[in-house]
Prior knowledge:
The structure holds two protein chains of two kinds. Chain A is an alpha+beta fold. In chain A, 25% of the residues lie in helices and 29% in strands. Chain A has helices at residues 4-10, 29-47, 49-58, 99-106, 159-167, 220-233, 260-264, 324-336, 384-398, and strands at residues 2-3, 95-97, 126-131, 134-141, 146-152, 174-178, 181-186, 201-207, 210-216, 253-255, 284-293, 296-304, 309-315, 340-346, 349-358, 361-371, 374-380. In chain A, α2 (29-47) runs antiparallel to α3 (49-58). Chain B is an all-alpha fold. Chain B is 71% helix and 1% strand. Chain B is built from nine helices and one strand; from the N terminus they run αααααααααβ. In chain B, α1 packs across α3, α2 (27-43) packs across α3 (54-73) and α3 (54-73) packs parallel to α7. In chain B, 49% of the residues are buried. The model of chain B is unreliable at 72-92 and 159-166 (pLDDT under 50). The interface between A and B is large, with 62 and 66 residues.
Amino acid sequence: MNDVIALLAEANPVRVDDLAPLEHPNVARRPIRRRRLVAAAILATAVAGSLAGVFLVGGTTSHSTKSSHPRSNSGVTGPPGPTGGFSVAHPIYGKQVSLAQAAAAIGQPVVLPGTASIRPEDAGPVLAWSRGMRGIVAVTYPAEGLVVEYERPAPWADWSAGLTAYSHNFPHGRLTSLRGTPALVIPRKDDNIDWVGHKFGWVTFKINGLMVSVIGHYGEAVLESIAKSIIARSPSRAPRPGLNLLPSFPPRKPFSLRTASRRLGVAIPLPGLRLLKRSTAAEGWAMGTCPPSGRRVCMIWIPFPGESVSLVYQRPAPRWLRTRRQYEIEAKHMNKNRHEAEVLDLDGVPALAINENIAGQHNPGSISFVVGGTRVVVAGKRHTAVLRAIAQSIVERSK
Amino acid sequence: MEEDFRRLWAEHHRHVLAYALRRAGQRTDAEDVVSATFTVAWRRFGDKPSAEFELPWLYAIAARVLANQRRSVRRLVALRLRLRELPAPAESERSDLPEVVAALKQLRPDDQEILRLAAWEGLTGAELAVALDCTENAAAIRLHRARKRLVEQLAKEDPAAGHSITE
């Protein structure tokens, strides 16, 4: 006789021990400032009530805000929602970075808007988030009640068709053309209320492979003019693709290829020189506990930007995704979602190959496998056969 | 306080990540949940219960974050983060006992949650009460009823198996 709770416990799909630790989010920093500023605001209220609003408005950001701006007293930058949901001041759970670092997350310079009311120098905190091949940058303008988000890769191979289909989700949405660029305009309506209770509208368009969304507490005309200014300021051609494939972002502990094995604690199996020239390797970076200790995981990334390939090594390898059976299950799930995943056999070593084609776009693919207790991921914007040859070579050289 | 927060993170963030993965499906979503949960935890650090109930307290926050995250999907965030994310390859489908997970999913959300907290997060009566913001007695009653309904559901889906399972 089985107790149903015991049975359910056996069905537990996620074991804590299988999970690599995450980076500490440093969430402590921002609220400290906020508390201090709120305290300052209270003090200021006691001294001169008129100043309180200024402190409170500035208190939620790590930036000083322009209290003279007409919108600064609108409450736009008020406290984030109780669970930290979306607001223009806190649009994504990214890390605060410099614009240069943000550019690395999306693989090209961040083109800021430039209008009479929104100038490049008005930009507030910049947040970036990246996972694998995707990167999102949010440039906030807290005092202006605006955020501009840049995401790569943009969805839909056929942007116009995709956007048209997507617009059907928004009864008030309107398709338009901004300087010849198809865009979706969602007006500021009751449906769109952020976590601090403010209505917002947005304009989304694609430029140079990025999906750009201008989101703010403004009417359509203003949002469109801001969007147009980004289009006007953008270079006419997208930068060369292939850079910054992996690693994810932001780099934590940079190191040179020479010290990679010391970082991982074991000799790193690299592919044959014929396939990947060492001289094309860029600075790598490590994350976690390196070298690994006990169950503490070390991950290192070695990008080869010139080859559009990155290698990732992780020790100890996760318990999930080791066996052929596990890869088959994973592939089954991925194929359900239109990813093209298949299980490979690399000289007796099972591997999972993922061709991350999304709606016809040829995004980078990857092949992952475990050799000698190390999980290896070969990722790149290359034909699967090339990635497979690199993976095969790593397996051979690790024997 | 910051040191105490770092300890909280070090001790519990992977548990919260597992909690979120069991429910959010997508790893990226789950990591967002962890981040948001600890952001809220920091802001409410003054409300943090004693060490033994820290984790259930974090689960309670994570539950609200998850609920908000789901609501967010219908809003702007849908455009930004989840535009291209097709139906999530749920972590729960990776279970070695998919039929049990499938039966669980047939229950009411409240029943699912208390059963998951008991079986997957391993919470006891008092901890369940913290996580669900109810009395220990209420938690016990809810768990008892949920177990019963899960057994019934299992029996419905596989009568032969259902008879061999107790509440």
